[in-house]
């Protein structure tokens, strides 16, 4: 059969047919342990019964109406998220990129309301915020920007985890209105900042009247062992974006805000046709309720710690492994060489992984992964990485 989809992905020759928990099966009946969970999306695993039931029941009642009317499911979800995050209001969209677009627009309008004609947002090198024109302009990755110039203006780029650089920007630029960063850089290679980084950002933003905007699209919803990664630092941002795991596979994004930022948008300033429709919100409510009931963030903290310790032991002394790092169930194994081919090699071994930043094996397993599945992940992947590195060394010799 001819393939008429646009050539936008380097897909593996695997057609995924169905999933259950931490496992996926392809159309040929091959089983895979999923250590990527749809890139941090299916944090409750595949085909979770509570989410599936919520979607089925809501689909029989009402899938979509319009934001012209009140949507009860949206209001309940907004209330739950605001209580969890200590925020005031939520705008719902369909994706992480849309959530970040909303955050960028809030920052710009916030600046204009203060008389700043050309508001600037500080962003970080190595970041990833999406692929729309504004969010790819904010992203610190030249590869995804190339060919789409002219980029959207209004972003000042600084090194990640570098407070001194931001302090210098504050002295020189009076048009800054916000800082937008990830609490942990995911696409950038699982880059974990210093423990005081977010607290220092909070202090600087308070000092200068800037909005602290945190992209928690990959780190949020329990991934790092807290509901939201910034909670490890005991701070609260002014704006926070969510998506991915919020719907466990049902497309939904959210931009949360508090204080002045929460009241910046007025009717007509922003909108979304599908955003926050009954079906998406029913799925997200099931996710939030399940994560609350089953204490998923705490489970992620424990399982992630065990996985990290397992890799540290299994790969100890392995030549070619530069670093093993993680925060909850957000884990990176950095090698001393490009290793994109490991994705296909691991798949042949029945394991689904990802490689980012050219040389970092990125793992984002379901937060519901059992202890035995976690041990299986460590064992299989350590063998795959060891064979890969040893073979490359033999070839070089």
Characterise this structure.
It is a single chain. The protein is an alpha/beta fold. The protein contains 13 helices and 15 strands. It has helices spanning 37-40, 49-61, 72-85, 96-113, 133-138, 142-145, 163-172, 197-208, 259-262, 278-293, 296-314, 342-348, 371-396, and strands at 16-20, 23-26, 31-34, 89-93, 120-124, 155-158, 176-181, 211-215, 239-242, 253-257, 321-326, 331-335, 351-352, 354-356, 360-363. α7 (163-172) runs parallel beside α8 (197-208). The longest helix has 26 residues, at 371-396.
Order of helices and strands: EEEHHHEHEHHEHEHEEEHHHEEHEEEH
Task: Identify low-pLDDT runs.
Answer: none
Q: Helix tally? A: 13
| CATH topology term of the largest domain | Aspartate Aminotransferase, domain 2
> Based on CA inertia axes, which overall geometry fits?
globular
Broad structural category: alpha/beta
Helix content: 25-40%
Number of spatially distinct domains: 2
Q: Tell me the Rg in angstroms.
A: 21 Å
- Return the CATH class of the largest domain: Alpha Beta
- Strand arrangement within the widest β-sheet reads 4-10-9-8-7-5-6
* DSSP strand content: 15-25%
**Biggest sheet character:** 7 strands, mixed
N-C termini distance = 44 Å
Helices and strands in order, then pairings?
Blueprint: E1 16-20, E2 23-26, E3 31-34, H1 37-40, H2 49-61, H3 72-85, E4 89-93, H4 96-113, E5 120-124, H5 133-138, H6 142-145, E6 155-158, H7 163-172, E7 176-181, H8 197-208, E8 211-215, E9 239-242, E10 253-257, H9 259-262, H10 278-293, H11 296-314, E11 321-326, E12 331-335, H12 342-348, E13 351-352, E14 354-356, E15 360-363, H13 371-396
């Amino acid at each position: 059969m001819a393939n008429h989809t646009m050539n936008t992905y380097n897909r593996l020759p695997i057609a995924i047919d169905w999933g259950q928990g931490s496992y996926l099966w392809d159309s040929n009946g091959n089983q895979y342990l999923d250590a990527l969970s749809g890139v941090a999306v299916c944090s409750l695993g595949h085909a979770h019964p509570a989410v599936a039931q919520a979607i089925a029941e809501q689909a029989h009642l009402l899938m979509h109406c319009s934001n012209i009317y009140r949507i009860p499911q949206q209001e309940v979800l907004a209330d739950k998220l605001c209580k969890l995050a200590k925020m005031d209001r939520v705008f719902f969209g369909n994706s992480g990129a849309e959530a970040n677009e909303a955050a960028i627009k809030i920052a710009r309008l916030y600046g204009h309301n203060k008389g700043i004609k050309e508001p600037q947002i500080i962003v970080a090198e190595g970041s990833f915020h999406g692929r729309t024109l504004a969010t790819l302009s904010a992203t610190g990755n030249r590869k995804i920007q190339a060919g789409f110039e002219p980029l959207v203006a209004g972003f000042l780029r600084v090194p990640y985890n570098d407070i001194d650089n931001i302090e210098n920007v504050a002295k020189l630029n009076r048009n800054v209105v916000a800082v937008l960063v990830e609490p942990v850089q995911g696409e950038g290679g699982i880059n974990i900042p210093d423990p005081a980084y977010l607290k220092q950002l909070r202090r600087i933003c308070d000092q200068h009247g800037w909005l602290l905007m945190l992209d928690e699209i990959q780190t949020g919803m329990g991934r790092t062992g807290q509901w939201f990664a910034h909670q490890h630092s005991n701070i609260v941002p002014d704006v926070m974006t969510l998506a991915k795991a919020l719907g466990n596979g049902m497309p939904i994004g959210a931009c949360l805000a508090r204080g002045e930022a929460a009241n910046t948008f007025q009717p007509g300033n922003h909108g979304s046709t599908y955003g926050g429709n009954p079906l998406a919100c029913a799925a997200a409510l099931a996710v939030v309720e399940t994560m609350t009931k089953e204490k998923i963030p705490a489970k992620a903290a424990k399982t992630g710690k065990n996985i990290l310790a397992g890799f540290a032991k299994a790969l100890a002394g392995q030549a070619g492994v530069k670093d093993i790092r993680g925060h909850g169930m957000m884990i990176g194994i950095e090698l001393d060489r490009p290793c994109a081919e490991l994705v296909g090699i691991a798949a042949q071994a029945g394991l689904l992984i990802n490689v980012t930043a050219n040389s970092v094996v990125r793992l984002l397993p379901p937060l519901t992964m059992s202890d035995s599945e976690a041990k299986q992940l460590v064992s299989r992947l350590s063998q795959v990485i060891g064979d890969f590195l040893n073979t490359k060394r033999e070839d070089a010799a």
